[in-house]
Amino acid sequence: MRIRGLSVAALILFAWSAPSVRADDSERNLFKDSIEANKQSIAHDTLDAFYQDALDYYHAKRYDESQELLDKIYSIDPSYQDVAQLRDTIRKLKASRQNASVQDAVAQDMHQGNQAYSQGQNIIAINYWKQALAVDPGYAPAKKKIQQVNHALAQRQFEEGYLHYHHGELEDALDAWSNAIALDPTYKQRGLLLLMSKVDLSVQNNQISRLALQAEEQYQGGQLEPALQSYEELLKLQPRHEEARRMSAKIKIQLGEAAFKAARSSFGRRQYAEAIKNWQASLGYNFETVQSQKGIRMAQAALEPSKKPSKKSRSKPSAASVAASSTTAASAQAAAPPPAQAVNPEEAMVHYRRGLVAIRGKDYHVALEELNIAYQLDSTNEHIYVARQRAQQGWAAANTPEGAAP
To answer: How far is CA 211 from CA 52, 170, 198, 361, in A?
Structure first.
């Protein structure tokens, strides 16, 4: 735009920089209107350029780039042409494309799972169906197939439990029935829990008798520590077992006295570290606690001059921190997608057996740690899968507040 042969910008500069020139009010208003019109023209040209680029991206199906430009236009002028409608259209197209991608991934996992199932590879099939659920948590066909396989596995465990029961293998029967319930909780309503409680009582009585005999034989053979361990296991099963309580107290006195004497002997030979170790053992058996604590302080004081601080010493991680890190690692491994094939079946079975021992001892935290590792090493093993399901159920039951729904 030009006024009296000069551009707007030149005229403004001339009017405001020359002292001898005095613009009247009408000229000042003209200048202001011209500047505002110029600004609007530039803004409109910019929006037009953005909009044209957005349309080009839209027709090329580059929806992310198109939406980014449309968002800029909308933030400046929400009523500009059909920007609002086009933004909404792109959102719907992107959502549709994402849904199609999800459906493709689910279909692929379901197909691989169905193939594995048709070949009798039940656990591999379940792994694929679970991957489909990870993509689409509400996908009913995957849930149904997993439930069907779990039901079939539970039926097999239920029948194996009765075979063990009729052969007098009561602990194995309890294990099998517990597996059946973990895989299919409906077995709880089939009278199985009542039978299991009766069998469990019988197993417990047998264990008490076996442990009592074992502890007595160990004590008579001079194996005091194993005997104490057996008596303590017996007391876990039957806390009011009088003989176990009496013998546990007696053995602790004997072991504590031996440790206390060994500590004094080590201290006399200036073997202060060994003395501390033995006095700590004495404390563990609650023997001469005051004297043992005093002896530890004396031995520590005697060791003090020989200690030399190391500049590069590094603190060793505590057992608690190591346990916490291993738990985190096991949880992360459990959360990661399982491998389709076995990685190390032999090592997996080592962790599987440890997990079973922990389950029988109702230590579900350790059981899950071991079985998660086993599952990562061999996610195709049916025994590992079943035991892991049982440990997960046990952990959930143990950590459900009383009165709350499991």
So the answer is: 86, 17, 20, 15
Whole-number pLDDT of residue 344: 85
> End-to-end alpha-carbon separation of the chain, Å?
78
According to the model, what pLDDT value does residue 398 have? 83
Query: What's the pLDDT score for residue 321?
Result: 46
What is the CB neighbour count within 10 angstroms for residue 60? 10
* Blockwise average pLDDT, block size 10, the chain, 406 residues: 42 44 58 58 74 83 84 83 82 78 89 93 92 91 94 93 90 91 86 85 87 92 93 88 92 93 92 92 90 91 68 47 43 45 83 91 91 92 92 86 54
Q: What is the pLDDT of residue 74?
A: 83
Q: Could you give the C-alpha distances from 236 to 209, 224, 229, in angstroms and in order?
A: 13, 19, 11
Q: Please, what are the domains in the chain?
A: 2-81 (no CATH), 103-156 (no CATH), 206-303 (1.25.40.10), 327-398 (no CATH)
Give the 3-state secondary structure of the chain.
CEECCEEHHHHHHHHHHCCCCCCCHHHHHHHHHHHHHHHHHHHHHHHHHHHHHHHHHHHCCCHHHHHHHHHHHHHHCCCCCCHHHHHHHHHHHHHHHHHHHHHHHHHHHHHHHHHHHHCCCHHHHHHHHHHHHHHCCCCHHHHHHHHHHHHHHHHHHHHHHHHHHHCCCHHHHHHHHHHHHHHCHHHHHHCHHHHHHHHHHHHHHHHHHHHHHHHHHHHHCCCHHHHHHHHHHHHHHCCCCHHHHHHHHHHHHHHHHHHHHHHHHHHHCCCHHHHHHHHHHHHHCCCCHHHHHHHHHHHHHHHHHHCCCCCCCCCCCCHHHHHHHHHHHHHHHHHCCCCCCCCCHHHHHHHHHHHHHHHHCCCHHHHHHHHHHHHHHCCCCHHHHHHHHHHHHHHHHHCCCCCCCC
What is the spatial distance between Cα 183 and Cα 157, in angstroms, rounded to a whole number? 9
pTM over 0.85: no
d(CA 380, CA 373) in angstroms, rounded, equals 13
Select from 386, 398, 395 the least CA-distant residue to 352. 386
Q: What is the pLDDT of residue 202?
A: 86
The pLDDT score that the predictor gives to residue 238 is 85
